[in-house]
Amino acid sequence: MDLTFSKEDEDFRSEFRSWLDQNLPAEMRTLDWWRPKSEDEQFQIRRDWEAKKAEAGFCGIQWPTEYGGRGGTPTMKAIYDEEMAKSNAPRTVNPLGLAFLAPTVMAIGTDEQKAAIIRPMLRTETIWCQGFSEPGAGSDLAALQMKAEPQGEEYVLNGQKIWTTNAMHGDKIFTLARTSAGAKRHEGISMLLVDMHQPGVEARPLKQITGESEFGEVFFTDATCPQTEVLGGEGNGWMTAMLLLSFERGSSAIGQYTEFKGQWNAVVDLAKKVDRGSGKAIEDPVLRQKLANSLIELECLKLHSWHVLTQTSQGRDLGYEASMTKIMWSETFRKVSDTYEAVLGSAFQVNETVGTTIEELTTLALWSRSCTIWGGSQQVQRSIVAERVLGLPR
Amino acid sequence: MKFQLTDEQRALQEAVRDYLGDRFGQQQVRAFYDANDETGIPADLWKAIGEQGWLAVMVPEEHDGIGLGLLDASVIARAFGACTVPGPWLGTVVAGEAIRLAGSPDQQAKWLPRIAAGEVKAAVALLKQGTSNQPAATASGGTLSGNLGLVEYAAQADLLVVSADDGLDLVEPAAASITPREALDRTTRLAEVILDGATAEKLANGNPLAELVDRAAVLAANDLVGIARKALTDTVEYDKTRVQFGKPVGSFQAIKHDLADIHLAVTMAEHAALYAAHAQDIDTADKVVAASIAKAKAGDTANAATSAMIQYHGGIGYTWEHDSHFYLKRAKRLEYAFGDASQHRERIASLVLA
Predict the structure, then answer these.
(1) Chain A residue nearest residue B298, CA to CA
(2) What is the DSSP string of B125-176?
(3) Does residue A265 sit at the B interface (CB-CB below 8 Å)?
């Protein structure tokens, strides 16, 4: 066992940390700084800041330099994630583009697609949405109905996508649609790269339980897309989608650990202040067990991140074990959030920062409930672990 | 960053498992369970444990040991858990650690080579029964007194290591009142031990009780994850083939989702138990918290996995003739040894919430 990082990795950490020190204002690091700003304002600030970060070379950490990446190692990516979370830096405005679309384009895209998509994404010139889910196709993605009929040199798209992150800010959407009637439901699907700034595409916000509209719906009514804008070839959409989703597998979750540990620390500070009648929350034996238990899960998540990093650094594909990482981080997030709610007790009903309540933590406690749904629900992930990792029959 | 066992440690793991599989498999465990004799360990197994060096692993080389660390010993503990190995290995190793940490050079020279060679069986009474941090006995003028409660292998041991309010002591079993009690888990032996002015020899070099309990807890945690992994693996294999309603029962989501959760918990407990051992070895700042995290997580997880083993085997899992109860009972024993999960969580709270 060797839990240290190489000098090269530590040098990268210092370099990135000192850039953050100089370029991330102290007020932006506080939990509640974002609160008074509108969602559009927040998005624009994040977009500008990310562009600045990219210009300084802190983007595409693990990507080859030919695509504008840094050509770094999985360890450097983990260090980057950790430092981003530690400094409470703004989250990327292109989460799905960076995690999924870009690596897929690098793997199977045409030269034109590589040039048109990757660098503009890194510089936040293009915000990418993912158009997979539909009202009738959630966990069962192959039930998707959206049609894209070939007409001349274009496809004509009709249908609806839902739960689309950044729907109101998107410039383009990589989306699955039926380009022909396949004999089986996985056939006849293509992944299309569609311009969202056209009359046939309408995005509408969906209000979430937090009150925010981080996602929305996207309606396609005779929208068009050139036939050259297929990723992975016409009719190969299902394979392309599976390849695309596989790129999440290398993720170590060290960023999530760092973020949740910060929230846990904030909950501990609150527990010292909240009066629960017979004493402060931190003196309550049941709450102490809860606080300790969420720390146990947090530390296990960190160790699992190290395990994942160890494997990926040695060039191993985690395969379906990646589902374990997703279950683990999202469940741990839920536990930390539950602990926050339990520590506050009746004060949790207040939806503003007053007394011991911190609105951002309340929002995160609500948000944690989405994380066990999106990207493959906990129940889908459990089936994957049971069938693909443990080998139990379908 | 290499959060994994070394090649040597993996080879050790394989060697222990292969050896036990060949010479002391589940058939022999069952025969031992049914015989339930007073020796507490088959003589040839104890001899082999000594010859293989499994007792010498943490004994320094100058005392005829191998001089490795707690992580190496943990690899053995994990295999012992998976194979439900009976005997006073854990007590003897922990007694050796007490003498290594707190013994004078003479005490070390007298006992450690014999412990390493398997010539001595030892038992430890480190904690007052039911507590996770209080010494077992009271010292007065070179003697110890107190009800030590249930002590594993006290009736079979050549040496007792007892914690007192002023340090750790060596006590000869002949000086103690020892009453054997039937153990639920037949891979151990229990006795009630009472000291009443028993002559004791103080370990001369300080009182590392907390450190010793942590090291014992980490070994117990590793035994527990070995149990948990084996219980899960056997259950998954059974549920792949057991057919009801025309399908393997492992195809039902009520079962497979729970098994997936247990696989996740066992994996995390394995991480925690390995890290805790390594943390003691390299003396990290969080080593005390790490020991408690490992013991709490491993205890809860082994409880879940061994309970699931019975439940998802159905009626057969509740029979004496099935192996399920070996794992359940061993897990129950270790779950409450050296502090249970609740006690370790409270300890974590007291360490980190200050």
Answers:
(1) A296
(2) E-S-TT-SSS-SBEEETTEEEEEEEEEETTTT-SEEEEEETTEEEEE-GGGS
(3) no
